[in-house]
UniProtKB/TrEMBL annotation:
Annotated region described as Disordered, given as residue ranges: 1-20
Stated family: Belongs to the short-chain dehydrogenases/reductases (SDR) family.
Entry keyword set: Oxidoreductase
Keyword Oxidoreductase: yes
Name recorded for this polypeptide: Uncharacterized protein
The organism's place on the tree of life at top rank: Eukaryota
One Gene Ontology MF term: oxidoreductase activity
InterPro entries for this protein: NAD(P)-bd_dom_sf, SDR_fam
Record has Disulfide bond as a keyword: no
Amino acid sequence: MATQHAQLHENPKGPGDLRPTAKQIIENEGLQGKLSGKVAFITGCSAGVGVETAKALSLTGITLYLTARHLDKARTALGDLVNSDRFLSKNECLNILICNAGVMQPPEGRTKDGFETQFGTNHLSHFLLFNLLRPALLAGATPDFASRIRLPGCDPIKTANLYTANEIERRYGQQNLHAWSVQPGAVLTELMRHLSDDAQGGLRGDPYLATIFKTPDQGAATSVWAATARALEGQGGKYLENCQIAKEWDPESGFFGPGYGHHAYDTAKAGELWEKSLKWVGL
């Protein structure tokens, strides 16, 4: 699916170039003030892509519920937009769930439930959150305004997230609940803080990456597009990047080239992961 936003990604020039920002997505979709009465829940709003996603969606008039590990940082970045509370005690309906929180190559460790830190944080926590909020997402869904879920797809756990989005689509798509796995791109945020200085230097010094790196507000564009674009209404279960439904990866494009691997839409493995994840999170 080619879009006007996708065309701006064809010849990237580096952070701050002509590739769209999250705010521009809202403006181009004509959604300023148009989502009053709807509700969105966004995780990972201390900094980076989460902050920019929240700022952009706030322009629509939607009610925002935001989570953050570091509330002081969130308050500094978002001001009056910070409104963390017990969601289900206040809302029976949810229209948009954006699972943005995550870690990247943290020091070796385990969650309190014994799972490897990155897998537990980037997959199982999102899986559990979706299942807890699923009744509200289904309650908020209508044929004219389906509920949408954005799962991350920007780290070594992205296959699990993609499988989860695909399985949500198979299980709940007919009930107007759709999920997307989103690759925000190579974004200059704090996500790389656990990488060694040499590793960070290698990434920042790569000539190809230098052209495709994005600012946080550009990195939030695909997430916001996934959550709001009219072109995606009634669809789900696909991998998005650069404000478009991604095509299969071409090896000639290089290691960092766009696209998904041949295993991405394996329904058997997605179903197996779903069943195992249910057991792992105690559902």
